[in-house]
Request: fold
Amino acid sequence: AGRARSIPPARPPRAFGVRTETGSIHPLGQNPSSTPETPETFVARHQGQTLAAVAGISRPERFFDSLRALGLDITEYPLPDHAHIDPAWLATLPEPLVIMTAKDAVKCVDFPPALQARCRVLDIRAVLDPALLEWLDQQLATTACCPSTPSSAH
Reply:
């Protein structure tokens, strides 16, 4: 009888880094590519204002730190990861503008237009270590060329 061989999963030879970078800021409910604003322009326009920062992610302090690093003055409103955002609660925030993560923004697209007009979304991208991408390409190249064949028992 033939036996199927088990190939152990390939693992990266070392730890690879992933960093984040800020992307554009855009109004809630609008296509980010049609109405982008650079963080620098946004910060310049809102210099001297305190904005509400809402984040329902696992580590909201990272989002808040990113906003402060851009030069924004914020009031933090951390929520539990995956939290529902109540439009009535959001409407009571005293700050003139609310800035949130893209993950939170998808929960707010059906909010009333007047509330959406107060909200902005900061896109944050993960940037993979180029060495990790090279390693993945190599792994895919070696596995893609060799289709597995089922073993046959006699």
